[in-house]
């Protein structure tokens, strides 16, 4: 297992003092990218929260950073990767985009890059909402979560009514040679996945769970814990897919979902039967996965 503390001493690509929120797991995810891949890395960013961390004339990155429109970061990454290839240079081209960009607004560009098997590492930092614009629903918002556009009121007692897309699965089906999920609360697993991805030629995709303090309404000092508890409850299966073969990387303890739901203000409106619905869905999901029918499960 990689030693994250030792890596941090050697390879930090991010300086202290950024414009990210305190406890932001998306910026922590980028720190881990730097530790895993080192300085020969270019980051291509889609408009979102991370954009604020590199706004002219300020930047917290010791590595090149390209800001893009929310729709086309994957296409830019393809162009950058082709440019380095033409020059015979070995550089990690990392696309770092939010879940709104990845699952909806920029989905065509990501899907196209996977289909063409372009040589990039695409990381979706998944905070389950359009955070930068005030926390609207995305296709990655979990069922029943309250957001700005799924408010709780007389007409809606549930919050978001649609289930999440399974992005890692979709990307594998779109042609990704390597597709995985990860969590910033399990940094060694994420780092190992990045190091593995950097050695594979073609389109690599990682769906990274990154809790969001103002969107999820979690205490700052519980940001790391909430991510860990989501994985441990089974709500965020951690796996990788290569050549249609699926490996579950972290076997969840299946702790009760109610414990992690109550840490998040976005679920404050849930009653016992709604919590029970979520718990049953997670249990069923894992029964499907454990019976070898991974492709039939939905990823809660
Ligand atoms: C076509 C388009 N629509 C909307 C916007 C406004 N916008 C800028 S950032 C952002 C939120 C992006 O959400 P996400 O990709 O989930 O990243 P996060 O904000 O969570 O970091 C939006 C909607 C835009 N820049 N371009």
Task: Summarize it.
With 300 residues, this protein is of the alpha/beta class. The protein has helices at 4-10, 25-37, 73-86, 99-105, 107-116, 167-174, 187-198, 213-216, 223-233, 257-261, 272-290; strands at residues 41-46, 65-68, 92-98, 121-126, 178-183, 204-209, 238-242, 245-250. The protein has a single domain, classed as 3-Layer(aba) Sandwich (Rossmann fold).
Structure description:
This protein has 300 residues and is an alpha/beta fold. The protein has one domain (4-294): Thiamin diphosphate (ThDP)-binding fold, Pyr/PP domains (Rossmann fold), CATH 3.40.50. The protein is built from eleven helices and eight strands. The chain has helices at 4-10, 25-37, 73-86, 99-105, 107-116, 167-174, 187-198, 213-216, 223-233, 257-261, 272-290, and strands at residues 41-46, 65-68, 92-98, 121-126, 178-183, 204-209, 238-242, 245-250. It has an eight-stranded mixed beta sheet, with helices on both faces. A hairpin with a 2-residue loop joins strand 7 (238-242) and strand 8. Helix 2 packs across helix 7 (187-198) and helix 3 runs parallel beside helix 5 (107-116). The model has no long low-confidence stretch (mean pLDDT 95). Thiamine diphosphate is lined by residues 47-50, 70-71, 97-101, 105, 127, 130-133, 138.
Bound molecules: thiamine diphosphate
- Per CATH, the superfamily is Thiamin diphosphate (ThDP)-binding fold, Pyr/PP domains
CATH topology-level fold name: Rossmann fold
The sequence of SSEs as H and E is: HHEEHEHHEHEHEHHEEHH
- CATH architecture name: 3-Layer(aba) Sandwich
